[in-house]
Amino acid sequence: MQPVSQLCLPARLSIIVPCYNEVDNVEPLIRALDQALKDEFWEVVFVDDNSPDGTADRVAGIAAYDPRVRVLQRVGRRGLSSAVIEGFLASSAVYVAVMDGDLQHDESILPKMIADLDAGADVVVASRHIEGGDNAGLAGKWRHFLSDAGIKAAQKVMVHQLSDPMSGFFALKRSFFKAQLPHLSGAGFKILVDLMMSAPKTTVVVEEAFVFRPRLAGESKLNIVVLLQFATMLMDKLTHGYLPTRFIAFGAVGLVGIIVNVCVMRLAGDLGFAFSKAQLIGTAVAILTNFWLNNHITYYDRRLKGSRFWGGLILFVLVCSLGAIGNIGVAQMVLHTVGHGHLDRSSAAGAVIGVVWNYAVSSTLIWR
């Protein structure tokens, strides 16, 4: 451990660790940082999304005797990107680094990253995909596929060509972060892409190779939901924020609902149900599907559980029913205005109004 005289000096580097259910990794990570940063004045800020396993309590217990350790416990909020932003804002250090709390990121390269910042870099990215790097610690072919798909998608739209835009391990100047803060969407799990798509072309970016280690405790957070949220964040950045991330996700879920509606309606028709009943069944299944997907994807950080889930479902059904009535009313009004030769325009206008209504009410009443 560092001597007390060093512990009292202000940190030059803040390490932000967004975490959820990482209680067994807290102490090993702090010991690893202490070993890697012997010659640096540092602090670590664990931003915990109210983990039920007691992660925040474990950090608080260590922070009671180690002033370099802090915890920021968030209640009622979830999401890696927003956690990182809040951690940044809680720091006053010159440099800020982000790394996962699962010990898969190699803390020993932090001194190299700091040296790059000292030499003039604005951002330093730890990459698994340059010479000397390795992605072997990513468990399973499915997670390799998700990671590779995200990298390819990001590289096609980013101005700054990174070998590993999906990396969750990077360091940057705090002044650079503050300059980009007003442009960040803060959505999803991959804030590096959010930062780099907001950064000017003149940004100096350096990559350092690192080996992605196998996870020793806890569970990986990378799944299909993360990739879908990543895709909506990319669309948000490409539209320069005119279409909010949640609205894009809500609209995509709505398209899935249309497909489900048609498929179930046809299946019910094949089973002998009359068209009106088949349509009713298809609509009901589509509404249930939309609610479940929105609860798990669009409003992941506000997910309803227990009694709130069932109350939200009832309200969602009512909202969608009113949206359907508004959809039909607007379509008929437009049809009356432009003439019966424009059924497609009338239908589209009604659909847009229906989606906007459902989104607005869902965001303000159901997933508050």
At CATH level 2, the architecture of the largest domain is Alpha-Beta Complex
CATH superfamily of the largest domain: Spore Coat Polysaccharide Biosynthesis Protein SpsA, Chain A
How many strand segments?
A: 7
Structural class: alpha/beta
Task: Please report the first level of CATH classification, the CATH class of the largest domain.
Answer: Alpha Beta
Structural Rg: 24 Å
Strand content: 5-15%
| Shape type | elongated
Outline the biggest β-sheet: 7 strands, mixed
Binned, the helix content reads 40-55%
Q: Which sequence of strands runs across the widest sheet?
A: 3-2-1-4-6-5-7
Count of domains:
2
Q: On the 0-100 scale, what is the average pLDDT?
A: 79
- Cα(first) to Cα(last) distance is 45 Å
Q: How many H/I helical runs?
A: 13
User: What series of H and E elements makes up the topology?
Assistant: HEHEHEHEHEHEHHEHHHHH
Low-confidence stretches: none
CATH topology type of the largest domain: Spore Coat Polysaccharide Biosynthesis Protein SpsA, Chain A
InterPro entries: DPM1-like, Glyco_trans_2-like, GtrA_DPMS_TM, Nucleotide-diphossugar_trans
Domain Glycosyltransferase 2-like: 14-178
Family: Belongs to the glycosyltransferase 2 family.
Main location: membrane
Structure description:
The protein is of the alpha/beta class and 368 residues long. The chain has 2 domains: 4-218, Spore Coat Polysaccharide Biosynthesis Protein SpsA, Chain A; 245-366. It has 13 helices and 7 strands. It has a 7-stranded mixed β-sheet with strand order 3-2-1-4-6-5-7. It is elongated, with a radius of gyration of 24 Å. The two termini are 45 Å apart.
